[in-house]
Amino acid sequence: MEIGLIGLGKMGGNMRERLRRAGHTVVGFDRDPALADVGSLEELVAKLPSPRVVWVMVPAGDPTRSTIGELKELLGEGDVVVDGGNSKYTDDAVNAASLAENGIGYVDCGVSGGVWGLENGYALMYGGSAEHAAKVMPAFEALKPADTSDGLVHCGSTPGAGHFAKMVHNGIEYAMMQSYAEGWELLDKVDIVENVPEIFASWRTGTVVRSWLLDLLVDQLREDEHLDKIRGYAEDSGEGRWTVEAALDNAVPLPAISASLFARFVSRQEDDVAMKAISAMRNGFGGHAVKKD
């Protein structure tokens, strides 16, 4: 297929490459001309055959809303816009309704895979009508992990279903990382335990706590056993907050996820020891910047 891709950063750039490796034609646009294939959104749209599919991978909030607003004026009936960024799910209904005024379809897609998605594939959680999603399906199939039926799921026909699922995924991620981090801090502090990195490494085989996050933490600990080079400071990208907000709106108790979110706030007040491990894992899976001592 031929597809437009807007936003060629850490995620978008790797997605463009994975799509091209699968034989698809990608026309990419980015504000950085060194990354872009074309010089403007107008040029991107002009290079695509109808019905056009344009995938947006820009920061959530105003950057996404303004990009979709521009596409509304450039695309036409039968075209489809995919929001693959980390937009709040409540934005999707607004975007879908706005594009529908011009006969343009809309699919929201939560994308997980970080900087490793190029080689391993991405977990894709999409929402919107089956009709609109069908036009994107060749791209979905190329981006998902190979040799498995998992990794691609239609979360619901209501716009926002995909981003809601990705939001909850990220909330769970917060709590998992917090548990590993607290366990690491305790093991690292006591005198009777030695070789903490290899203790974590031993958990990767046969135990119920094995995971990719654990693999990433082991890699970081083997390079810097006490994480002395990393400041105990961790940002949150929004999804954890939105997960807790949704829990409040629906009266669903989320004590572990809520506590992990608040722990990140604590990290910004002082050099929190456990947050060194959180920061290390975020750097490992997503290439997120760490604050160095």
UniProtKB/TrEMBL annotation:
Domain 6-phosphogluconate dehydrogenase C-terminal: 162-289
Gene3D superfamilies xrefs: N-(1-d-carboxylethyl)-l-norvaline Dehydrogenase, domain 2, NAD(P)-binding Rossmann-like Domain
Keywords: Gluconate utilization, Oxidoreductase
GO molecular function term, any single one: NADP binding
A Pfam short name: 6PGD
GO biological process, one term: D-gluconate metabolic process
Protein family membership: Belongs to the 6-phosphogluconate dehydrogenase family.
Protein's name according to its UniProt entry: Decarboxylating 6-phosphogluconate dehydrogenase
Source organism of the structure: Nocardioides cavernaquae
